[in-house]
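Our consortium's second objective concerns turning raw sequence data into structural hypotheses that experimental partners can test. To show how far this objective has progressed, the report includes one record in full. It was chosen at random from the queue rather than selected for favorable results. The single chain below, 221 residues long, was entered without modification.
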Amino acid sequence: MNILRRTSWTILIASFTLVLHFTPSVAPIFHLELKEPSHLLSYRILSCHALHWSWNHLAWDLLMFTVLGAICEGIDRFKYITYLVLSAILIPNVVVACHADLSTYRGLSGLDSGLFAMLAVDRILESKRRRDQGGVIIFSACLTCLAIKMVSETYYGGNLFVSDSSFVPVPVSHFTGAVVGAMVCLLFHEQREPKVCERLGSLITRDRFTSILPTSNWPRD
């Protein structure tokens, strides 16, 4: 139960992605047209990431998102949600700016790359804090591998893991996600379980609320 609670957002997004793939008739409601300005200012800029072109496309994207998302959410949910919102908005905008010929965008791969980058940077910083030289080397190597993957995809014009001709690969989405993921991690690395979230959570029950106020000022039963 604790695992489900700690990864609730990842489970929710993964479930939503599966539901959309099993019910293609509702896809037009969440579909994003890059050449339609109103779509870039609506909920579609968030929902388009949950849509995929094929089962092969879905399998790789969803597997990576579920694993990486669960790990990142378990480490720091605030940072995780901040990253998802920022990257989900920025990725389609960067894609439309770099690929004016594309008419639509789908997939979790951009978010996946960012989650990988965020996790790697987080572990590098944490390893440095603990003076764990081995951890720094291992996770720096992981980050380097991600960079090599993205450069290779850009050079060859395809996806390294997904071999599917039903859609046009967009490596710039992976770069965008990775940059946002690394930046969010660097900006919020010291902020684990932010105090604002703790304060809001303390308002849920009276017992926790009284813990942040002087007991003499609270009426007793």
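The partners drew two points from this record. The mean pLDDT is 83. The chain has one domain: 2-190. Both points have been shared with the crystallography group to help prioritize constructs.
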